[in-house]
Amino acid sequence: MYKVVLVDDEPSIREGLAELLDWESLGYRIAGSAASGKEALGLNAQIRPELMIVDIRMPGMDGMELIRELKKEDAGVRVLVLSGYADFNYARQAIALGVDNYLLKPVDEDELADNLCAIKRALDEREAQREAEKRTKEERLSERLETMLSEAPASAETWAAEMASWGEADAGFRVVLIDIDADGGETALVRRQICERLKASYEKTGAGIVFGAGASIGLLLADSVLRDSARRRLTASLRDWGELAGCRVFAAAGEGVTDAAGIPLSFAAAKLRAQHRFFYDGADFIDDETARRLPSPEAVAFEPDLLQRQAERLYLAVCTGSEARVAPIVEEIGDLMLGAGEGEDSLKARFVQLLTRLLEKLSARQPGAGSAPTLLESKLLAIHRACGYQTMLAQISGLLVEAIRLTDDGGGERQIRKMTQLIDAHYKDNLKLEKLAEAFNYNSAYLGKLFKSVTGDSFNTYLDKVRIAKAKQLLQTGLKVYEAAEQVGYPNPDYFHGKFRKYEGLSPGAYRSQFESS
């Protein structure tokens, strides 16, 4: 709506004009009225109307003097003259002063409406021109950037032509993408606020261009701008703006490029870094200096068997109380998953699944560990909420060290008891003293001597005795010899036969026959 001030020394004329037309339907509203030229000048300074409808003959300052003063103060104000005098001299002066028309009283309603429509068209054109002039070259470039980055790739020549007018075009380019972690509808509001602040900090100084990039805010900077103190200032500003809005603001910068044709490459790099924020440990600002391990872009096929072997090593480390070995094995498992191209969600899910099984096995087979899974359940859930890769690995290692301590009985012969418990639980596996020595972080020869001094048997003898005892139980149930041999860890029946005779003085078949005949 355009503002109108009615100026006439007769109140009835002013009131009649106000009631004569439906002003709003014509695009106007009556913003004020004045009984003299001097009063009208005061309203002009106060209201800044787009249109004044002015009488010619008024006491004191007449209409002509008013128009002259108005044009001095605001050359753009439109003036429509209404006069009861058909004096050509008045009309000529008014036209010379740049009024829109000179109408005689009593004014014809249709004629006045036609004039108002013509003036509105002129005002509309002027407003459109002003809006166009307000748009800076950065704003126009902002629209072009958004369009060119979202559409099919443009040629190098097109990029060069588009960016040639930017003052920093010779300093190289770097794209920064800014994301906001806010609740629901607050995101849109915070996004607008940060856009305005970025424009004030960068566009108005010519140092950058703010543009839309999907859900992100894009910021194109001269490559030389994002260095040292300027980087720290931007990081601090984003953090402060986020705290002010009660949310967290993240930024990811692409690589610097030397020419405009490289802008899409910098944009793609920033986008990839933003998508993989978890692997940068949730850093607030990711750029070339924030190097972290990422999932392999050329992912190899996932090997479940290899993961299973690593999981077994981890289980042995926990069972043997080797706290120092836990973190390196967890790191290796993480590297295995990264190499297979696992993303954040699938990587977390695999780790939680692995840990759940490990703790269940620990609870079922390790005396004293029954409470461990329950006590550590909340920490398993926390892994899903981890904001960064290294943070998650530290949480996993900490959880397993806690599991070790929850199952530690603290006795002087603890390590050997752990070994015998492990043999009792895993006698059917391919257990080797060297493998256990690695898990316990011992020299294998020393561990063998320590084991014999505590148990009275060598490691292999103790393992054989456990296996033969288990085999006897199976044979008593009527299981065939080769089946019992396989189930206790002797895949070769002949080897099993020899071991059984050595410890029991008769063959496994003969032992089985004793129970069949009875």
TrEMBL record:
Segments forming domain HTH araC/xylS-type: 417-514
SUPFAM superfamilies to which the protein is assigned, alphabetical: CheY-like, Homeodomain-like
Alphabetical keyword list: Cytoplasm, DNA-binding, Phosphoprotein, Transcription, Transcription regulation, Two-component regulatory system
Top-rank taxon: Bacteria
Signal peptide per UniProt: none
PROSITE patterns recorded: HTH_ARAC_FAMILY_1, HTH_ARAC_FAMILY_2, RESPONSE_REGULATORY
Residues modified to 4-aspartylphosphate: D55
Localization per record: Cytoplasm
Entry keyword annotation includes NADP: no
Annotated ranges, domain Response regulatory: 3-120
PANTHER family given in the database record: HISTIDINE KINASE-RELATED, TRANSCRIPTIONAL REGULATORY PROTEIN HPTR
Name recorded for this polypeptide: Response regulator transcription factor
Organism: Cohnella hashimotonis
Source organism phylogeny: Bacteria, Bacillati, Bacillota, Bacilli, Bacillales
